[in-house]
Amino acid sequence: MEARGSTALYVCSILFTLTVLQCCYRERGWTARSETKGHKLEINVSPDFIHVPFSIHHGIEGESVLLFVESRFPLDDVEIQGTWSHTGPSGIRTTLVTFNKKTTIPDMTYRDRLLFREPNVSLEIHELHQADEGDYHLQLNIAFHNKTGLVIKEERTVHVTVDVPVSTPVVEKSPSYAVVEDKANVTWTCSAERGTRVVFQWLRDNVPLHHRDRYRFSRDNSTLLITPVRKEDKGSYRCVAGNAVSRGRASEPVELNVYYGPYNLEVNSGQGLRTGEVFTINPGELVFFECQADSNPPNSYVWISKSRNATVITEGPRLEVRSYKLAQAEEYLCRAFNNVTQKQNEAQFTLVVASLGTGKEKHSQDGSHLSPVAAITVSSLFVIGCMLLFFLRRTCHPKRVLMSIYNRPLSEQKRPHRSGHEDATEDFGIYEFVSIPGKMESAQASCRSLARLEPLQDMHTTIYDVIGHVPETPSQSLQN
Questions:
Q1: What does DSSP say about strands 150-163 and 56-60: parallel, antiparallel, or unpaired?
Q2: Cα(251)–Cα(189) distance, rounded to whole angstroms?
């Protein structure tokens, strides 16, 4: 009975201990293993005991890589035991190093290239080879001194790649000469002397190229096939190459010359009036026409008169026409021909000779613009003249002066004049008004003096009356 009681008490103590551990560690998610007299127990344990910052490392061939592990437990309070192993692309797993708190045992084939760092159990690999690629596994057992029988197991995996940096790529074009659109294909090849797992990118005029109907790329993008080549494919091509351990490096540009055209043929002139395909020019005017098209190489041009049974007038991009040699209207045609592509294009137009109001007519039109101003000026001067004449007429009254003279009595008309002459025979005749400027009397005062027939004398002015009656014979007047 005592043996059974002691056994039951022992089992109860174990269960109590495990229950306490579960309560303490459940929240932290640990994985623990306890072994007591053949009994095994595993529980979830927190991963916070160790931490691996990077799960992938991109190594460079010939250089070192550090698989860093951060330990989060006090080394003095635990005992550790673990291994680092490597699984290559072939799937074979190799143990690199076995360690505990006091001892490190590396694999003999790696001992010159491995450096194990305590206490954080990090692993550094020197002089990387291509064979060093793969997964590196860390298995770590942690036993705490104050928890007898408790072992915490940690596992981590780190992936390592080993690459060679990419050298400057080189672009090749086939064929190397210029090609004709719609008749040729072009193959571009990009290659780098050094580099592993190289990624290629194609650019035309610094713009990335992507898959489309006429562009075909190889699996790694190292080859580009353009089929068929067209006008829009011309330009400067280059390739950019890179991988995980080197930034993209660009090749030297290579030009693609494409023969095409003629396209967008047009006939233009800086003279006359254009309406659609009809040009109107003035009679006698010299006109120049230009024929232009988009083409590589440049086109050859021919000018044809359709009104003259398709007669070739001249060759070249420029046509000179003298309108006085034309009929009322003529039809012309410009034909552009590309000697390489063997393509041609035509543009037709009609030339009409008609007055557009240029030349002399233009000058007359310009004069007509000035005529209103001249008319206004003349009208203004005419009005001003009429106003002055009316003013003078109302001021002087010449008709009244003459009427007053002829209506005077005869005795007054025969009254001797106080002219200062002794002999009246010398005064016979018809006299006019003679005014000699004197005291600058006003015109109105002079006219009133004439109306009163009163002679005005001063030191500067003398006015004579008009003699309205002339005797029939000079002798009778003398006798009187």
A1: parallel
A2: 11
Query: pTM above 0.70?
Result: no
Whether residue 138 is predicted with pLDDT greater than 70 in this model: the reply is yes
Identify the three-state secondary structure at position 274: strand
Give a three-class secondary structure readout of 2-43: HHHHHHHHHHHHHHHHHHHHHHHHCCCCEEEEEEECCEEEEE
Helices 360-396 & 443-452, crossing angle to 10 degrees? 50
Please name every residue paired with 258 in a beta bridge, in sequence order, or none if there are none.
Answer: 179
Q: How far apart are CA 187 and CA 176, in angstroms?
A: 10
Taking residue 58's Cβ as centre, other Cβ atoms within 10 Å add up to 15
Q: Are 259 and 181 in contact (CB under 8 A)?
A: yes
Question: Distance (Å, rounded) from C-alpha 130 to C-alpha 145?
Answer: 42
276: region left, alpha or beta (phi > 0 left; psi from -120 to 50 alpha): left
Task: List, for residues 161-213, the tens digit of each pLDDT value.
Answer: 999 999 999 999 999 999 999 999 999 999 999 999 999 999 999 999 999 88
